[in-house]
Amino acid sequence: MTAPTVDVHAHALLPRIEALVGGLPGYAEARALDARRNGPDALAVSGPMVRDRIPALTDPAVRLARMDAQGVDVQLVSPSPSHYHYWTDADTAEKVYRLAHEATAAHCAAAPGRLRGLGLVPLQHPDLLVPALDHALEQGLVGVEISSHAPGRELSDPAYEPLWARAEKTGAVVFLHPFGCTLDERLDRWYLSNTVGQPTENAVALSHLIFSGVLDRHPGLKIVAAHGGGYLPTHIGRSDHAWRARTDASAGCAELPSSYLRRLYFDSLVHDPRVLRALIEAAGTDRVLLGSDFPFDMGSDDPVGALRAADLSEADFHAVRGANAAALLNLSPA
């Protein structure tokens, strides 16, 4: 018996959420901010790209057929990060996460042996985080997806301590997937908002979790960082140097920053076999999971082939292909 091939980075589009928030106060401003951050050229490409992928994002039968073609047995399905809507008020935010959980659970119920789901939590309303996580788990989801920050709050904010404590206690997976980059117009050309913005946001968010001591206080957290953790794992030496050289850098965490990489999980979506090998060296083979960003254009249509291109040992290849995720998600062998 071998571990199933598991893709931990795959998305679903949930139209009921957009129907709920469209036209509400703040919606137009949020759309305008997104447009400003990405720039007109990116939006002109992204619109048709997403429309072409709506069947794969919404129809479980199409999803399963694509998974078969890719050789993927199980997907961990998370809502599109465009559904975060961290601008909403508390009442709307609760409606958003409830809709997200019910819709994702229904989508995954089409093939419960092959689809597992994640929910959402409203980072802009810390008092709703634990109820939102609990609701996700009650719906049969295995955890939640979060962005790299919320307006005015970093992931190091003490207001998030109850979320980390509850996630640790329940064993819930927390999938860290940024949406939007606060560098704004500096990245509004050539799709820099994604190619530079996403790995930057990953690195900043993970640094807040490490340097603030969140991972010291909650060593059992199951955090999975999208996009291979961005720039941090391959540039962690600079963080280690700062921790050794400066009292302000070392004040919040007990150990070298690089040691915390082995307390986190990372997907394999780095688009470069050399970077993937470096990620595995930095974090450990048991901490890297297959990820594709299904079905978006910045993902991989052949995640298993991309993993094979890294020229790993057979044991490491199969660990990343599925054994690590199977252990994390408590999946049975294929």
From TrEMBL:
The lineage of its organism: Bacteria, Bacillati, Actinomycetota, Actinomycetes, Kitasatosporales. The keyword Lyase applies. This is Amidohydrolase. Residues 6-331 form the Amidohydrolase-related domain. It comes from Streptomyces zaomyceticus. The keyword Lyase applies. InterPro entries: ACMSD (IPR032465), Amidohydro-rel (IPR006680), Metal_Hydrolase (IPR032466). Keywords: Lyase. It comes from the Bacteria. Coiled coil: none annotated.
